[in-house]
Amino acid sequence: GNDSCEYLLSSGRFLGEKVWQPHSCMMHKYKYNEAKNCLVDKHIAFIGDSRIRQLFYSFVKIINPQFKEEGNKHENIPFEDKIASVKVDFLWHPEVNGSMKQCIKVWAEDSVAKPHVIVAGAATWSIKIHNGSNEALSQYKMNITSIAPLLEKLAKTSDVYWVLQDPVYEDLLSENRKMITNEKIDAYNEAAVSVLNSSTRNSKSHVKMFSVSKLIAQETIMESLDGLHLPESSRETSAMILMNVYCNKILKPVDGSCCQPRPPLTLMQKLAACFFTLSIVGYLIFYIIYRNAHRKNKPCTDLESGEEKKNIINTPVSPLEILLQSLCKLGLIMAYFYMCDRANLFMKENKFYTHSTFFIPIIYILVLGVFYNENTKETKVLNREQTDEWKGWMQLVILIYHISGASTFLPVYMHVRVLVAAYLFQTGYGHFSYFWVKGDFGIHRVCQVLFRLNFLVVVLCIVMDRPYQFYYFVPLVTVWFMVIYVTLALWPQIIQKKANGSCFWHFGLLLKLAFLLLCICFLAYSQGAFEKIFSLWPLSKCFELKGNVYEWWFRWRLDRYVVFHGMLFAFTYLTLQKRQILSEGKGEPLFSNKISNVLLFISVVSFLTYSIWASSCKNKAECNELHPSVSVVQILAFILIRNIPGYARSVYSSFFAWFGKISLELFTCQYHIWLAADTRGILVLIPGNPMLNIIVSTFIFVCVAHEISQITNDLAQIIIPKDNSSLLKRLACIAAFFCGLLILSSIQDKSRY
């Protein structure tokens, strides 16, 4: 449903200590600058007793964390931030009586000076002063009945919240408060709800019930100092809920899905919907015509033998059918993406990290990976099965890292940074090896790689209305692929076949790599030059995020050397292999026994040393600064440990390798159909059962990623033909398509502003 505000105000649960999870949506934690930005030129009024005063203090502390709780408690307390032009007042009216009514009446009849938000509530003083008598309850009901029309009138132009009374911890109450029992509080709450909800006969009341604080108090009131007032953490949660109710629809934070309306469809999204609808209709028409045309090929009965004859000639599948079928499936998948993360159809929840939610699934997949093992087809270092296995287990660890919210735990964060670096290391190793050995610098190879890397992301940018840089890993591997290609393709083109005749060519290649390293160092330490390059149009359209390219610079700089390390490793390995220095036979150690044992010992020590260093990190910024230079240590250590023993090279995990073949699709799809709110939360398909939900959503997510991988491969064969003349025509069409996207993007940007 669309009204997640009602859930935010009325229901939820604690994920852990002090972490509140509203039912069905995600709550953003507002910082003071965000709060000021939202509440500029706004007036918020809190009216009620000491509990409302507590809520007032917590709300003001979101705007100004230095604000102190001081002054006479039983009088009005003003707060004003003149710079942001924010005004928050607490008005002391501990009973629902004529005094409170007069205050509300002034607001209701004043056409100018109404507060934008009114938070009211009171009851415990009435119970205390009148010793919990039934007459006081009847009077309370009469008084709230008299102010209900005024509140309803105010609610038409302002946001009005009536705070229901929180339970008390009766054992801690002082003697003069013993008459305030939970039974009495429930009776007063029932009276308030019955009156305010029935204040309008023909429609729903505009006065919103703030009942969620009762649920929060039920879990935390035991920590109260006096049994009546809530602990500070609970008040902060209630204040943050109020901030989310009002500000989410204004600031639209990504991780604050509560109270946010569904974003309107953009022009490109509408065009994409039309395109996929036409593709589905086109495929259905094609399928019906194709089926009718081939009815004659059905098996017929041989009159003599009584057996069926089958037409054994298989009709080849036409490219048009493959194209329409792929677009049809892709359209249905994109509809699912949109429903999961844009349409407010499914629930979303905040992440909450515990060690068990990260390490137990890691152990589980490790056991599965070891259980499913097979012999490799070849026993070379980093053979295809092994690299697929490596990508697979890394991708599974990264997925668990994302869904568990483990980025808050620095040792896990640092180790996952190495996994991302290892992906880029493989990019350098794999593409360098291909160009060095094959010498194929043709445009077909380049287009195939670029298409396979970017197809899904380009479609998601259109369907999900997200910038290209949002899916940061794909731009990263795309740019590095082009860097590798340009480095090796530029004159002089040095490949293995040419270099075998003379060491001079090896030296020439090393000079090329040295120049590449020099360029990397220059851009890494010259942020201005980097930003100028990528701020040029149309590159800026690809690499800007939130109006600048800082995020792209940060991502690129974080792993700036590792692709170079991958290229250098590939060059060293292939040179040693060509000179037959390595022993890559089945079951044979990579080097002589003595050298293998020494290298294996050094690798294990290096691997553990890096892990100890990463686990002892205290400051993320400092560790990120060292990461680009030292991440290669653990990567090389892992490669040597995995490849020096002959028996280790001879086997691989088919379980991990299967996931490795679709690792890019898994990494990209997780943004919207496994996680939610652009990776900030978790998608909830089945509410109330987290375990079943994760099983179902994971199954669908993996199936979709596998299907998209198949679709990408099929379309790559059609859209990127091997014939150069046909390919150039397709490239002209693709260029025209991207020009159209740029024009539509400019139109959308203007309409937004």
From TrEMBL:
Residues 20-75 form the NXPE C-terminal domain. This is N-acetylneuraminate (7)9-O-acetyltransferase. It comes from Myotis lucifugus (Little brown bat). It is a multi-pass membrane protein. Its EC number is 2.3.1.45. Residues 252-731 form the Cas1p 10 TM acyl transferase domain. PANTHER family: N-ACETYLNEURAMINATE 9-O-ACETYLTRANSFERASE. The gene is CASD1. The keyword 4Fe-4S does not apply. GO terms for cellular component: Golgi membrane. One of its GO terms (molecular function) is N-acetylneuraminate 9-O-acetyltransferase activity. Keywords: Acyltransferase, Glycoprotein, Golgi apparatus, Membrane, Transferase, Transmembrane, Transmembrane helix. It is an enzyme of class 2 (transferase). It catalyses: CMP-N-acetyl-beta-neuraminate + acetyl-CoA = CMP-N-acetyl-7-O-acetyl-beta-neuraminate + CoA; a ganglioside GD3 (d18:1(4E)) + acetyl-CoA = a ganglioside Ac-O-7-GD3(d18:1(4E)) + CoA; CMP-N-acetyl-beta-neuraminate + acetyl-CoA = CMP-N-acetyl-9-O-acetyl-beta-neuraminate + CoA. Belongs to the PC-esterase family. CASD1 subfamily. It is found in: Golgi apparatus membrane. The chain crosses the membrane at residues 271-290, 322-340, 352-372, 392-425, 446-464, 470-491, 503-525, 558-576, 597-614, 626-644, 682-706, 727-747.
